[in-house]
Design a protein that fits this description.
The chain is mainly α. Helix content is 63%, strand content 1%. The radius of gyration is 30 Å and the shape is elongated.
Length: 569
């Protein structure tokens, strides 16, 4: 319905961003509607009493408490969907060590504070609901009788502190684990199959998270809980008269621990359902460019959109889907040559090459300074034994002298925290760096390859889609390019991919001084991207295997292509 409404309203628009915003807004509304059954399921589970047998389930389905709990769970779910929509973004950090996790918290401090505060308030709200519906610790005790001065209930204080810890821990986990970033859903995967696979994981994650926080809270409160309780009582005693009798610790009450676990497993389960719902429905792939009459121009406007990384990400996703699975759209792109700004293939390939070239430039900026080595001259008569399809590739080399390489530019200073670090994050992390770098351990850690900025892979999936879309269009051009627009750009495409592959392999092989192959966490995405580029080049080689001798390539590219032609790269 959302797809059809958007098509009726904006069929003549070629603005990819405008169409995408309309689709995303309607998806958010659908997610709010679909949140109702999830809230009802959590309410039924909350009111289920296994001691009463099957009648407990029948009563839980129609109980007034179930209806009331559904309302509050729905409010909590809507708040989770809203905070996800407000803080949702595409870029991500590649590291998983503790230092970059701190950087994720400080990268967007306002968003971090908003997320943590929201989940703390939701945790308090659901705690009040559970206390009212299922019973819980009262705030005040009257050890001297109904007419004596009250005493603060330590179980009540511990419950609210535990609720605060759960909200803070969950909000921090969302930020540090990058769960507010765009996940990469499978193309054309239905929502039913995605939810079916994720619901058991949500139950497991909710129970594991609540149990983990409870164990850590128990240990921490066992150490400092009595001091915190007496401090709060001392503050309250200055405001009004209170009692000071000794009471039992809630940490040793089995019923209180069971109440905490039951309450916050359901609370975290509500949050998990909302998170999975948002991730599946709001990020579901949609053929946005098909909503426009001129879908090629609409797709191109999305690829060029730089104001919103999400819009550009969706555009590259659309391009990959069209290049990989739609022969009709591929032919339409390759035969669209009546454009004043150039053929559609030229403009789309330029956007893909720009993404790859930007990543190549960032890797070059992180490379250590090396003395330039004079390139060995290649004579015209030198034999470069490259064979494809049983025919010698004598024509693959251009008969020209290689150009004298220009002196390399002065290396730019490597920013340890990347270009994204600004404001509070920049100040705090720079101060930490300045303190640590003076020590031998700090010099070893902070100046190593693993501590360098990995902002080059912030748009990892976008780079993958750009590379595969480019190669897929080149591969299909053998039979689908009627006007030969792709053939003139093959050398440029190969040059871009080979340049990126060289920088990736240099970065992956960089070691900490021992010469060993570095396969640490910091290099996993580098190694994965190496495989993506190699696979793309092998796809090109196998597709053009019988036509390689007809290509006119520079000598360096010819030598690099030789390894792939021999299947030895």
């Amino acid at each position: 319905m959302a797809y059809q409404n958007a098509r009726n309203q904006a069929v003549s628009s070629a603005d990819f961003a405008k169409l995408a915003h309309g689709i995303l807004q309607q998806r958010f509304v659908r997610a709010c509607v679909y949140e109702v059954p999830f809230a009802y399921v959590v309410a039924v589970v909350a009111n289920l009493n296994l001691r009463r047998g099957v009648f407990s389930l029948a009563y839980a389905l129609v109980s007034p408490r179930t209806l009331a709990y559904t309302i509050f769970a729905y409010i909590a779910g809507i708040a989770c969907l809203a905070i996800h929509a407000h803080t949702f973004h595409v870029t991500r950090a590649a590291h998983t060590s503790h230092f970059p996790r701190l950087q994720r918290l400080l990268r967007r401090p306002q968003a971090t504070v908003t997320v943590v505060t929201t989940y703390v308030v939701l945790s308090w709200l659901m705690l009040m609901v559970h206390v009212r519906m299922f019973g819980g610790a009262r705030a005040w005790l009257y050890p001297e009788g109904a007419y004596g001065p009250p005493q603060l209930n330590p179980a009540w204080l511990a419950s609210w502190l535990f609720a605060t810890c759960v909200g803070v821990a969950y909000g921090v986990t969302l930020v540090t684990d990058e769960r507010l970033q765009l996940a990469f859903p499978m193309l054309e995967q239905s929502r039913i199959h995605a939810l079916k696979d994720r619901l058991p994981m949500s139950f497991s994650r909710a129970f594991g998270f609540a149990t983990s926080v409870l164990c850590k809270f128990w240990l921490a409160y066992f150490v400092v809980g009595w001091g915190v309780y007496r401090s709060v009582c001392g503050v309250l005693a200055r405001i009004f008269s209170t009692s000071a009798y000794n009471v039992a610790s809630p940490l040793f009450s089995a019923s209180m621990l069971a109440f905490w676990l039951h309450t916050f497993v359901l609370v975290v389960l509500t949050w998990e359902f909302a998170h999975q719902l948002f991730e599946i429905i709001v990020t579901e792939p949609t053929r946005i460019n098909e909503l426009s009459v001129d879908r090629n121009l609409c797709l191109l406007s999305g690829l060029r959109h730089t104001e919103s990384p999400l819009i550009q990400h969706l555009a590259f996703q659309e391009l990959y889907r069209a290049a990989a699975f739609s022969m009709e759209q591929r032919v339409e792109i390759l035969t669209d040559i009546d454009r004043t700004s150039g053929t559609m293939w030229t403009q789309i390939s330029a956007e893909c090459i720009a993404v790859i070239s930007a990543a190549t430039g960032q890797l070059k900026a992180q490379a250590p300074a090396e003395k330039p080595k004079p390139a060995a001259p290649i004579k015209k008569g030198d034999a470069v034994d490259v064979r494809a399809g049983g025919a010698p590739m004598a024509d693959i080399l251009q008969g020209r002298k290689p150009a004298v390489p220009a002196p390399p530019p002065a290396p730019a200073p490597v920013d340890l925290f990347g270009v994204e670090a600004q404001g509070l994050e920049k100040y705090v992390l720079t101060t930490l760096r300045d303190m640590l770098v003076r020590s031998p351990l700090g010099q070893r850690i902070l100046r190593s390859h693993r501590a360098q900025s990995t902002s080059v892979f912030a748009n990892f999936q976008q780079q993958v889609w750009a590379i595969r879309s480019l190669i897929r269009l080149v591969e299909c051009s053998i039979t689908e390019d009627k006007y030969g627009v792709v053939q003139t750009d093959i050398a440029r495409v190969l040059e871009t991919l080979f340049a990126y592959l060289i920088e990736l392999e240099r970065s992956a092989m960089q070691s900490d001084g021992s010469g060993a192959y570095n396969v640490q966490t910091a290099n996993r995405q580098t190694i994965a991207m190496v495989q993506v580029v190699r696979n793309a080049l092998y796809v090109f080689t196998t597709s053009f295997y019988e036509y390689l001798e007809a290509l006119k390539l520079p000598p360096q590219q010819a030598k690099q292509l030789q390894a792939f032609a021999n299947f030895s790269a």
